[in-house]
Amino acid sequence: MAFQDQNKFLYALSSNQAWAGYKSHQNPAFFKNLASGQSPSILWLGCSDSRVPETTILGLQPGDVFVHRNIANIVAPTDINTSAVIEYAVAHLKVKHVVLCGHSACGGAKAALGDSRVGGVLDTWLTPLKAVRTQNAEELAGIKDDDHRAVRIAEMNVETGVKVLMANFTVQEAIKERGLSVHGCIFDIASGRIRDLGFGTKSSKSHRSSSILSNGGEEEIVRGKHAQLVFRDGGDASMLVR
Fold it and tell me: Where does Zn(2+) bind (predicted)?
């Protein structure tokens, strides 16, 4: 639907009214249940990019995912904001999965690959990503395609962030005490697909499954509008697309 820039916020408000009405019609108890509290299974650490809305791309619903997003999905041990989110989600909400997800065409990744200043606080914020570039300069220099190079440093950034997560005391305790799973992923904007990079507690199986296999043991089911995810003991996952 085409509309003028100055009307976008009014359109968004009207769209919210329509969405709330639709959800209430679909499930009269939906908002009442949401208001009673939250018990998300997933902590999502992602980028602020408008093209990577976690609940939408996962096919899930409000209440399913606890979220923290920042420029270039940087997880630094000195960032009290990120640390507070991790501690609350893991120690208090008892999430079962921590997902750190980067993405293709990331502006922060491209900026970190460049030599010019971005300006303001952004240069300071991107310091950890610049460090990743320096540490992997030889490999990155060997990638001639700019887009591929940006994806590669985004992957490296996720790997670095997962290492920070795995060194976090709260995360370590949850892994030992209740089997918390940590995952590192990349979202490809051009295809809409999330790829598990294999970093973390244990690599998840392919998300391309068209059916759910039952191998016994304890499992948790997360149902979304278009898909159903099954997480099993040991970190394995499968998806049923509806």
Answer: 47, 49, 103, 106
pLDDT tens readout for residues 76-130: 999 999 999 999 999 999 999 999 999 999 999 999 999 999 999 999 999 999 9
Closest CA to 170 of 73, 72, 83: 83
Write down the pLDDT at residue 5.
74
Q: What is the CATH number of the domain that holds 114?
A: 3.40.1050.10
The pTM of this model reads 0.83
Catalytic: 185? no
- Which string of DSSP letters, residue by residue, matches 29-66? THHHHHHT----SEEEEEE--TT--HHHHTT--TTSEE
Instruction: Tell me the mean pLDDT in the region 167-186.
Output: 98
49 is in an annotated binding site: yes
The annotation status of 25 as a binding-site residue, yes or no, is: no
| Segments forming the whole domain that contains residue 127 | 38-202
The catalytic position among 68, 97, 103, 133 is: 103
Task: Decide if pLDDT at 206 tops 50.
Answer: no
List, in order, residues 6 or more apart from 37 with CB less than 8 Å away: none
In a domain, 11, yes or no: no
Does 220 fall in a domain? Answer: no
Residue 237 covered by a domain: no
Give me 40's structure tokens: 């998300």
